[in-house]
Every structure is written in structure tokens, then in C-alpha cells.
Amino acid sequence: MNLQFWGKAADFLWSGPLSILLLGIGILASVRYRLPQRHIPTAVRETFRSTPAHEGHPFTALMLHLAATLGVGNIAGVAAAVALGGRGAVLWCWLSGMIGIATAYAETRGALERCPGEVSPMHALSALGKRRTASFYALALCTGGLFIGAILPANAIHTAFPLPHPMSGVILAILTGLVILGGVTSINQACEKLVPAVMILFTAGCIGILWIHRTFLGETLRCIFTEAFDFRAAAGGLLGSTAMSAMRAGIARGVFSNEAGMGTAAVTIGTLKAGDAHKRAMVSASAVFWDTVVFCGLTGLSFSVAATAVPGILTLQDGTAFSLAAFSVLPLGEPILRLCMAVLGFCCMIGWNYVGGRGFEYLWPKGGKIYCVFWCVGILLGTLIQAPAIWTVSDLLNVCIILPSLFAILLYLRK
């Protein structure tokens, strides 16, 4: 595989066509549903309301979705966005999250209204008579899931804890297998315990970085805004401008993190049976708020402040190395970050297994256990493959998942 060629292809797609398409559909969804972003405070309160056990709990559904979306994209991915796109990438990541709230709302509500029994983009597309598109989406979901939810997190965990091969892969595969073989109930129980704990720990670390480098906060905020909108072309033309680099990195990593537009929100929120289509869709919208607006925003800001205080950090193109350098100013900062990356990566592996498994089961209804085997093999491979190759393939598979999902959203908005 010519990684340089495919890397340039991914850069082109995310720098222009996909970024414009995602932002455009997000704006259309905002208008069509009268700014669902304004309901976020209500959605956050709804997350913690009590519901009958047989209908599922909004908090459980939210944690399942966050387990799939939170992960290396929120730490190493954001760090890579800052390193590759500059500090302006933070603003584009945050803006993509704000617009992505409406996209996630639209994809979930649309799927619920078209196919309330089996909630997913592939079932909704099938109900709309687009069976071939539904099958392509299901194939992209289960294949892309192996890279996004198994291979990539396993690689990040192995980088954070470089145990000898194949020990790290075997340990991760066994631990993940013990959870995912128990089905959605076992996955939900693990997510409810792990996701909130690691979010609190990592958030505390980011706040600590901001406090230590607080004198650089003003300069950092100025750089974030100026670099985000500096469209002066560099030697390579418009796509080489500071703003375009920031836009590509910020939106790509923002979408990679919150998955708004990928249709995965409809899959995870489908486990929630309580509430009407609006309330259930707002749970998925609130996941984008927590994931990108709050979590990625805080991560990007703290990493940008660290880069302003120690400019040499910006030369680190590897996201994990960048993150470790930023956290090194904290007492026990590196061990804390490594622990957070490991737990978030593990949550991503078990959460995305449910999402990818739903795509696989659409194509092969009785193939759930077989997909679990594929998943564990993918985890083993993730500890052996180089990270740049995984990020490139993951970006391209994201495109394969996003395009049919955005097509479905356009159908929802039209009818």
C-alpha cells in the first residue's frame, strides 16, 4: 500500500470536500430542527432522570456512546491536530462539535422516526428503499470499526505501555474478549464504571496544565483565533495556508472523536427505549457536547497552552509523544496520562465493538460471536502495525462510513 498517496488523498478529502459537506449538513440540520443546540442544558438534565429498568437509562446509553467516541482521538488525536494544524485546529475542532450537535440529533431522530424497532442508519436506509446503500454502510461500519475501535486503540495503548510483543496484544485481546462476549449488558456495566472515572481524572490533569501555564493563556487564545482564520496561502497554495491546515486537522479529529455524521449515535442510542424521538435524539446530541465541546475543547486548550509555553512541543508530530510532553509538567503527569489513554482506549474497544457488531449482524444476523473473534485478532494486529498507517487507513474508512450516513441524513431532512 502506498501510504503517501492515500495520506494525500485523505488530506484532500478532509481539507475541502468532506469538511464543507459536514459543516453544510450540520447547518441544514440546525435550521431544520430549529437549533437543537439550545436544548443541551435540558438534555444534560434528562441524562440523569430515572426510567423503568426495561426501557434503559439515558445515562447508560450516553456512557456506551461516549465509550465508543472517547479514546485516542480525544488525546493523541487532538494533540496530533495541534501539531499538524497549529493551535487554530482547536477552534475548528470546537466549532465542528457545536455544529455536530445538530448532525447527531438529526441522524438519531431520523433513524428513530423511520425505523423505531431496529434503530440504526442501515435499517433506516433499508426502510427508505435504499437497501444497497444500507448494505454498503453496514460493511463500512464493521470494517471501519475494526480499525477505529480495535486496531487504533490497541496501538495507542501499546505505545503508552510498550510491553514486549505479543504480550500486550494478548493481554488486551483477553480483557476485551471477557467483556464483549457478555453482550451489551456486560459492555454497559463496564462503560458506566470506567468512562466517568477516567473523564474526571483526565479533566483534572488538563486543568492542572492550564493552571501551571496560566500566564500563557492569553497569548494562546490569541494564537488559536489568528491561526484558525489565517487564509494567507503558503508555498503549496491555498491548501498550505495556516487556516486550511487548522481546518483540516481540527474538523477531521473533531469528527473522528465525536463521530457526528457517522451514524454511530443512532446505533448506541438505539439501546435506549425510554422517551420520544426528540428526547432520545437529544441524548446523542449531548454526547457530542461532552465529547468535543467540553472534553476535546479542554484537551486542545491545555495542549495549546503547553505548546505556547514550550514551543519545542510543536515539533513532535506523534500525538502520543506530544501529549506526554504536555503532561510532563504535572507531578506523576506521564503515568496519569498513560493510564487515561489505556482506560479510554479500552473503553473505545468495547464500545465500538457493539457499534461495529451491529453492522456485521445486519449483513450476517448470526455472526455476532464471529465478529468478536475478528475484533480480538484486530487488537493483536494493532500492537504490531505502525501508527501512521493506522491513522491513514482510519481516516479513509471514516469517509466510507460518513458518506452513506450523510446521504441518510439528507433523506431525513428532506422528508
Percentage of residues in DSSP E strands: under 5%
Estimated radius of gyration: 20 Å
Give the helix tally: 18
- Total beta strand runs: 0
- Span between N and C termini? 42 Å
Describe what this molecule looks like in 3D.
With 415 residues, the chain is mainly α. The chain has helices at residues 3-15, 17-32, 40-47, 58-69, 76-85, 88-114, 121-127, 131-160, 167-180, 183-212, 217-228, 242-258, 264-269, 277-309, 319-327, 333-363, 368-382, 387-414. Helix 5 (76-85) runs antiparallel to helix 12 (242-258), helix 9 (167-180) packs across helix 16 (333-363) and helix 16 (333-363) runs antiparallel to helix 17. The longest helix has 33 residues, at 277-309. It is globular.
Keyword list:
415 residues; mainly alpha; 18 helices
Topology, element by element:
Elements: H1 3-15, H2 17-32, H3 40-47, H4 58-69, H5 76-85, H6 88-114, H7 121-127, H8 131-160, H9 167-180, H10 183-212, H11 217-228, H12 242-258, H13 264-269, H14 277-309, H15 319-327, H16 333-363, H17 368-382, H18 387-414
